[in-house]
Design a protein that fits this description.
This protein has 10 helices and 15 strands. It is α/β, with parallel strands linked by helices. β9 and β10 form a beta hairpin. α1 runs parallel beside α6 and α9 packs parallel to α10. The radius of gyration is 19 Å and the shape is globular. The two termini are 33 Å apart. The protein binds threonylcarbamoyladenylate and magnesium ion (MG). Magnesium ion (MG) binds next to loops.
Amino acid sequence: MNTLVTTSIEAAAREIRSGNVVAFPTETVYGLGANAFDAHAVQKVFEAKNRPPDNPIIVHIWSKRQLNQIAKSLSPKTKKLIQKFFPGPLSVVVQKSKAIPSIVTASLPTVCVRMPSLSITRRFLKACGVPVAAPSANLSGRPSPTSWQHALHDLDGKIPLILKGPLARHGLESTVIDCSRDPPVLLRAGAIPLEEIEKVIGAVLVQTHSQHPSSPGMRYRHYAPQAKLVLVRNAKELPQKKGNWAYVGVSKIPRLLSAFSFLPSTLEQYARGLYHFLRRCDELGIETIYAELPPEKSVGRALVDRLRRASQK
Ligand code: TXA
Ligand code: MG
């Protein structure tokens, strides 16, 4: 199959309406979408990504009016979150309606919904005319794509079309909150800090790394580069000689001896560039990556989560 890379929203939406899959930009990472009402189309998403079938998919909408097609009645806390953070990088897990086929939710009675804010994404979703089920547009186990080039690298020849858009502004996936339970549960730290969410709905339970009964996706090793990833807390843990190793971190390192480095000045920049950096390290054949662990608050919480996952072999 030839993969067309295009800026034509209409061509991309036409593929979705014909039951095919399309990679598209969002403000978090690129997604790989299909008509959420069409089980056969969603099956193609699992195949293209080589995604385990027990990992459910987020359903993307452009208008809050679509919620009643997808979800059963929404709790007051869910409504507050939607009011405050839709459109944006938040996904909420709610009771699903019958219209959503079980392949989308891996047979769970709940569905995860998100309304992206990027303008091209919203225009694309509107043109589709149906909710779009979409995981990140990477091969399973690879870092999520933050550019159309990443999506092309992973999915060239496997999907008919990539909708070309800008670099992902956040560079990390959406925050996932399970609103089917009370208190709600943080299933995945992400682009919206937990602190911001708690300001709106009060206390949220945080799952530890060892317990993940309700977010199947968090069971898998994710976001992984081919290089060995070593997490460090300070400069003393870095090799004291030149070698085929790379470094990423916000702390200034005197006499950095790495072959390649990414030195963001803020945690937001760290988040935005992390997946690109991990992919570059693979292209350069880097053997070991040393990554500075940020403090586990605000966007640092999501960074720590992704770094920990990427470091598990
Ligand atoms: O930013 C994002 O969220 C990107 C863009 C494309 O929207 N999407 C994304 O999708 O990261 P994915 O499939 O890579 O991650 C979805 C996460 C997984 O951890 C999955 O297990 C969880 O959401 N999830 C989806 N539906 C769920 C459900 N019904 N219950 C619990 N967790 C669910
Ligand atoms: Mg993913």
